[in-house]
Amino acid sequence: MSNTPEPQKITTRLLQIITSRQAWNYFILPQQINEQQVTFLISDKQKTDEVREELELLYGKKVVLIPTPHEVLEKQLSFYYRKEQQGKQTTKRLSLESASDFLVQMIHEADSMGCSDIHIEVFEKQGKVRYRIDGKLSERYVISLGEYPSLVNKVKIRANLDIAEKRLPQDGRIFFEEGGKKFDIRVSSLPTLYGEKVVMRLLSKDSTNIDIATLGMSERQLQDFLQSVKKPHGIVLISGPTGSGKTTTLYATLKILNNHQTNILTIEDPIEYTLEGINQVQLKESIGLTFASALRTFLRQDPDIIMLGEIRDGETAQMAIRANSAWGSISRLLDMGVPPYLIAGTLTLTVAQRLIRKLCPHCKTQGPIAQGVFPIGYKIPFPIEKQHIPVGCPQCYYTGYNGRTALYEVIPINQEYAGFIKNRKDDIHENLLNDGIVPLSVRAYNLLAEGVTSLEEVYPILLNSL
Q: What are the C-alpha distances in Å from 264 to residues 127, 278, 285, 302, 341?
C-alpha cells in the first residue's frame, strides 16, 4: 500500500511559498509549513537528498519530502502552477517584502501566463490577488492586511492616482516598461467595505496578429461583414457585453480599412492597440474630452472613417448618426432618442457578439447528452445525441478548456430591415431565419454539436435567446 497522502485542496497562502518555476524545477508541491519545517510532495523520479539540501538552504528550516508517483504529481502541478508561455519573460520568486518589486514581478508573471486582468482586493481578514485567464478568475496570492495598503499605493503612484483619495473611484494608466516588456495597463480603483479594490487591465500594443478571418465568423457572416464595412458611407454597429471581444473585432476591421488614402479617426477608452496610420484619441472626461466633444471635432478633421468606441449619451448618438459612422446597438440608439428614420437611412450592418471558451482538443471526450439539459422553453434547431465534455490535461492546466472564440450574429440592413427599424418592429426572428441569418443561439448550438465547446459554455446564450 502506498504511503502517498490523498490529494487535498492547497491554500493560496501555502502555494505562494514557491514560484511556478521552482515547483517545476524541483518537481515539488507544498503541503505544510510551520516554524520548524516545510513539507513537500516530490516526484519519485527526483533525487530527494539533493533537493532537500537546496530547499533547506532556501528556507532555513527542516524540509520533509514525500515521494509521490511522477504522473500524479504532474497533474497537480499543472493545476496549481501554470507554466509560463513559451517565449515570455521569466519571473523571480515573488515577495511582498518590497511592494514595488512585488508589483513589477506580479505584472511580469501575469503577462507570461496570458492574464488579461489582475484583481487586487481586500476583505475582512486578508487581501487577495486574482488573475483572469481565458475569461475566468483564479486566486493567485493572499496578502496580509498590513501589507495590502502599501501594494495599493504603489499601484496608484505608478498610475498617477491620488493616494490620499480613498473615498471615490479613480481611473489611471501605467506605461509598463520593465525587463524588455513594453505595454500599457489600465488601472481602476474602487472603494469597498474593507478598503480599495484595484483592477489592472493589461493592454497589448501588438496588433499584428489580429485577423478578422480568424475571430469566429462563418463564411457567410464574414462575407456580409466585409461587404458592409467597405461601403463608402454608412454605420456599422457592433454590440455585446463587457468582455465579449468587441474591441478586437473593431481593431481587426480598422486593419482592413487602413491605407494611405484614408483618414481614419478613433476615440477610445482605453486605446488597447496602437495602429500605424490611424489617428487615435484617448478619452479624458476630466478635462472635457468626451466622446461627444471629440466627435464634434472629428467632423471638422476631414474624416473618411470614424471609429467611436462607445455611445454613452443621446448627444453622442445624434452626432454619430450625422457623422455617418458609429458603433453600438440599434435599441440603445432608439432609447437615446435618435429618430428611427435616421438609423434606417444610415445603418448598413448590425453585429452582436459573445465570447465562449473552447474545449481543449487534447483531452475532451464524448458523452451522451441527456433529455431536459437545455433551458426550459428552448427549441433545439436539430437533435444531437452526443456532447463533448471537458476533462483536463497538462496542455490546458487541467481546466478542460484552451482559448476562446467569438460568436457572431451579423445582420446586413436591406430595405426590408430598414422598414422594420422605422416601424420599431422587434420580433424579426422568422425573417432572419428565412434570410439564412444565424442567430447567436443557433451559432452557439452549432459549436456545441461540432464539439468545439461544452454545454456549460453555451447554456447562458441559449437561455438568453428565450
A: 44, 5, 22, 9, 26
